[in-house]
Design a protein that fits this description.
Blueprint (H helix, E strand, L loop, with lengths): L61 H19 L7 H17 L7 H34 L17 H10 L5
Helix pairs in contact: 1-2, 1-3, 2-3
Pfam families: DUF4190
Keywords: Membrane, Transmembrane, Transmembrane helix
Amino acid sequence: MSDEEPRYPGQEPPHQPNWGSAYPPPGQSTPPPGYGYPPPGYPPPGYPPQGYGYGPVVPKHPNASTAMVLGIVGVAGGFLCWLPLLVSPVALFQGRKAMREIDASNGQLNGRSEAKAGFVLGIIGTVLLALALAFVVLIVVLSLTIQDFWGETTDDDPGTFDTSARTSLVATWPSGA
C-alpha cells in the first residue's frame, strides 16, 4: 500500500514542502521574497537592530541600599521589640539625602527606588518610635500621679491580708497535743 494519492493523466505531482532542507526545491533557485534569512548586518523583520550590549551601567548611590536596609530593620524589628525603632530616623535622613543627591546627579547615580523605600520606611518607623515614646511617657506620668496605678495596695486598705494575726496564731498553738 502506498502513501501517495493516485494521479490522473495530466495532473502534476503534488508539491512537497521543503521543510528543514538546506537546498531549495527543484526548479527554484532562490527563496521567494519574505522568506529566508535577511542579508548580513540587518535584523530579522519585526526586531530592532542589535546594539553592542546594554548601555553603560550607572552606579548605585552608596547610601540608597543602606537607607532601605535600615528602614526595613527599623519597622520590622520595631514590631518584635521597640529597640530597632531607634534606627528609623537614621533611615529617614539617609534616604532623603540619597534621593536629593540622586536627583542632583542628572542620571549619573542610580538607586532612587531603594532610597525612597528607606525614606518611607524611616517615616513609618519614626512615627512608631514617637508613639512608643509617648506611651512610655504616659505610663511613667500615670504611675507617678495616680497612687494605685499598678494595683498596689496600701496599709490603709481593708482588703489586704493581715499576716500579723497568722503569726500570733502560730506562736500560741499548743505544742503538746
